[in-house]
Amino acid sequence: MPMNSQSNELKMTVDAETLEIQYGANVRGPRPEYRTLDAIRSSLMDPDCGGPSPVYSIAMDVRLAGDEVDLNARYLLFGVVAYAAGKLGKEPVRSQGHVHAIAPHSGWSPPELYEIWEGKAIIYAQEFAADDPGRCIAVTAGPGEHVVVPPGWAHAVINADPSRRMTFGAWCDRQYGFDYTGVRAHSGLAWFPVVEHDGKIGWKANPRYRDGRLLERKSRTYPELELDPHRSLYAQYRTRPESVEWVAQPQRFAELWPSFLP
Predict the structure, then answer these.
(1) pLDDT tens sequence across 127-147
(2) N or C: which end of the chain has fewer CB within 10 A?
(3) How far apart are CA 115 and CA 143, in angstroms?
(4) What number is the average pLDDT over the span 79-106?
(5) What is the Cα–Cα distance from 192 to 205, expressed in whole angstroms?
(6) CB-based contacts of 148, cutoff 8 Å, min separation 6
(7) Which of 150, 105, 138, 149 is nearest to 213 (CA)?
(8) Three-class SS string for 94-152?
């Protein structure tokens, strides 16, 4: 089944059953890795729950042929992820949550820039993976919409429509790494998403954190980061690479990040 990549360049297909990603002409990328249900149980509200497995597939370093040298020089990496439909117990299909490890080339925990391709997603982010999670926000986004997770925030991506698969692309730092320490120490993030009887997503606080307020809202545009909301993320790189280069160079907006909300 074709995957709508919001870009004429990155043509791909994803198998609805296996979540296998196959690349079209002139698109290069690795075989996807698969996250099984067993691999993420420790961060779920009910670690013994049933659900689809694999939960999602992920392919890092997807690009057009010929872009490799430039992407390496800019420390940019484009990832593609496909989520299964269904539920993990009472929760929607989601990732386990992590903080980005410090990138050696910049000395920063890098931000991440998402673009939803199919289905409906919630990007949940919290300021800290400590007892006090700080600001917590859940951003709902649909096809073609962008969401930014700022440097150092713990975050997870959620399939907000359990009736169908969800796919997205994301710009990441090439020296990416995942730090699960704080999230796993608290058996998950500060808020668990729950599928209500009407199919909508509600939230249940994780008692292992201090009480905090959750802000829910729809996606927004990011003029302060010079993003074009009408152009796909890969097309922005191809036409104006500096518009996404801050993902690997977050110091360019050092004064912005302390007050930034996704």
Answers:
(1) 999 999 999 999 999 999 999
(2) N
(3) 7
(4) 97
(5) 6
(6) 111, 112, 113, 114, 222, 225, 260, 262
(7) 138
(8) ECCCEEECCECCCCECCCEEEEEEECCEEEEEECCCCCCCCCEEEEEECCCCEEEECCC
